[in-house]
């Protein structure tokens, strides 16, 4: 039987690595009234955690295999995935019960070209129903893999669509209503890479697993002997006190190229990260959720909330060892210090060590321009919608599977005003389309948020102006989702549904009309 990753468990005081550097009592001593309130609800997290300088880096970085595929007579590229239960040794000789796709933990990396027709035969080998959502993919609603496309045990679901978006780092994971956190925490996740000719023509690292490395980051909690167990619960959700990268604890990657590309995926259920290099060198950001930026950007830290992706470049010297870290601060998280302390906003981790060979293959300079992005289309707005994030609700209510909250018309552009009105952490993810951020609290977004996005870290008491274009895939019968991607929040019902229809059509589900429209 799998461990209940939601249940509270007793932990031994002896740990292999430092864990909580502060306790809930320490927070109370700081005079934090909000901590008292959370403690009464059982929502005080593990306190400050730091593994900096404590990670051994004794495990080679696993590289998820590239998913095999065939091409049908009609040109459709066909993949297959099977959700399975299995066991994984996160510590030598100690087995943890886990789930994975085509294996015991995580899943293979799917790769498709823009313009390709693809089909994925998703088999459910578990004893419970699950789904597979293609996070960041533009595709028909009935192929989206949300809670309306459940796959029962022993059954196979075969979504099919044409890949029609720029090269990007996407991913896939379950989306069962009320159980997403548990399914993802048990290991059901993997990457889906979209490639295109424009990105392929650039002199960037792109040899998968060699100079182009997938970096799937998850937090987790372990017993003293290395068995996976439930993590401590905070408002954001369950926060582990160690990291897994591609399913491994303390990994290192040997590299033989001067320039290395890291595809960072925050696949954690609740924890946000602020990725940085141990020696203080800047991170060179080249892409976000939906693909390449217009030009690379040097950042002190790359902040990713759950579900977000980023592609960064790093140039190494022969023989160098370099550690990727996450150093989160209340300022980076946008949280008050006390709230940050119980929601991972003061935690520090050693993530991954890069080990450069004595001789490295040289790499050209990064081009000054990476992509041509269209201007943010704010002139031709067909509809403006407002969304308020507070507690575990959007617009003061919880999602219902038989209710359509908004209906959008195909061929139109909309403005979505998304505001986190609380002092607590949230995020916001939209299915179907990549959007652009027009403004944050009325100001232009920083360069790192100016590209294509499908998920945003919704900082407290901040309003985001999103511009979305609904180009195609009208379907009055099947909705898409929007929701907080802190997965425990999503499971509590912090989610809504929208349908895309032809002009003059109505969604076939009950449609609510009491939202703010401008």
Give descriptors for this structure.
6-stranded mixed sheet; 7% helix; mainly beta; disordered C terminus; 40% strand; 518 residues; 7-stranded mixed sheet
Topology diagram in text:
Blueprint: H1 24-29, H2 33-40, E1 59-60, E2 69-71, E3 77-91, E4 94-101, E5 110-113, E6 117-124, E7 133-135, E8 156-157, E9 160-162, E10 168-173, H3 180-185, E11 190-195, H4 197-200, E12 212-222, E13 228-229, E14 232-233, E15 238-239, E16 242-245, E17 251-257, E18 259-266, E19 273-277, E20 283-288, E21 291-299, E22 302-304, E23 309-315, E24 321-327, H5 330-333, H6 337-341, E25 348-361, E26 383-390, E27 393-394, E28 403-404, E29 406-409, E30 412-420, E31 426-430, E32 436-440, E33 455-458, E34 462-470, E35 480-483, H7 487-491, E36 495-501, E37 510-511
Parallel strand pairs: 1-17, 3-6, 5-11, 12-18, 17-25, 26-30, 28-37, 29-36
Antiparallel strand pairs: 2-3, 3-4, 6-8, 6-9, 7-10, 10-11, 12-13, 12-16, 14-15, 18-23, 19-22, 19-24, 20-21, 20-23, 24-25, 26-27, 30-34, 31-33, 31-35, 32-34, 35-36
Report what the structure shows:
Strands 12, 13, 16, 18, 20, 21 and 23 form a seven-stranded mixed sheet that branches. The protein has seven helices and 37 strands. It has 518 residues and is mainly β. The longest helix has 8 residues.
Q: Can you count the beta strands?
A: 37
Low-confidence stretches: 5-37, 513-518
- Determine the N-to-C terminus distance: 52 Å
Question: Approximately how much beta-strand content do the residues carry?
Answer: 35-45%
Q: Quick one: biggest sheet?
A: 7 strands, mixed
Mean pLDDT: 91
What structural category do the secondary elements indicate? mainly beta
* Number of helices, where a helix is a run of at least 4 consecutive DSSP H or I residues: 7
What percent of residues adopt helix (DSSP H or I)? under 10%
Rounded to an integer in angstroms, the radius of gyration calculated over CA atoms is 22 Å
Q: What gross morphology would you assign?
A: globular
